[in-house]
Target: Peptidase C39-like domain-containing protein
Amino acid sequence: MCSGCEVTSLALFLNFYGVNRTKNELASHLSSVPLTYPNELKGN
Model:
């Protein structure tokens, strides 16, 4: 599940404008694609 800064910022923005959603609610609708770089480091 994606629950980093991006989804937290989105939740704060929406809540400010009266759309009451938690970051976990929003994150459940996002897909995450694991990424492995050639040097074996990971990211998404």
Q: What stands out?
A: The first helix runs from residue 5 to 16.
